[in-house]
Amino acid sequence: QVQLVESGGGLVQPGGSLRLSCAASGIRFSIYAMDWYRQAPEKQRELVAAISSIGSINYADSVKGRFTISRDNAKNTVYLQMNSLKPEDTAVYYCNAEYRNRGRTYSYWGQGTQVTVSS
After folding, report:
1. What is the DSSP string of 38-101?
2. Measured CA angle at 47 (ends 84, 78), to 5 deg
3. Closest residue by Cα to residue 84 from 18, 7, 8
4. What angle do CA 92, 95, 100 make, to 5 degrees?
5. Are strands 113-117 and 91-101 parallel, antiparallel or unpaired?
6. What is the pLDDT of residue 92?
7. CA-based nearest residue to 118, from 94, 90, 80
8. pLDDT value at position 65?
C-alpha cells in the first residue's frame, strides 16, 4: 500500500519559515519524481516545486528564491523549505509522487498539510 504522509505545516507570521516533509512508503522512492503542490481556497491546485529522480529541480515563479525542495532517498522523504513566507503562500500543501514508464503513469498523493501565513 502506497502512503505519502506530509508534516510540518502550521501557522507562521509573514517573513517566517516552515519546513514541510513528505515521507513515502510502498514505492521505490528513488525512481519517482517528487512534487509539492498547493491549493488555496477557491483556487486551482498549482505546482510549487518539483525534483526529479536524478535531482533536476523546478520552481514556480512565485516561490523562486524563497523555497527550496530537496530529497533524501535513504529516508524516502522529500522536503520543502519555505522562507520569507507571505500571506499569499497560505494554502494546503500536497506531496505528489509520479513515475512514468512505457506509457503508464503512476501517481500518488498525500493528504495535505495546512500552511497559514498570518500576523
Report:
1. EE-TTS--EEEEEE-TT--EEE-GGGTTTEEEEEETTTTEEEEEE-S--GGG-EEEEEEEEEEE
2. 75
3. 18
4. 140
5. antiparallel
6. 98
7. 90
8. 97
- Residue 14's SS3 state is coil
Which residues of the chain are modeled with pLDDT < 50? none
3-state secondary structure of 27: coil
Q: What is the Cα Rg of the chain in Å?
A: 14
What are 82's three cell numbers?
A: 519555505
Q: pLDDT digits over 36-46, tens only?
A: 999 999 999 99
For residues 40 and 99, give the distance between their C-alpha atoms in angstroms, rounded to a whole number.
26
Q: Give the model's pLDDT for residue 95.
A: 98
pLDDT score for 3? 97
Number of neighbouring beta carbons within 10 Å of residue 44: 7
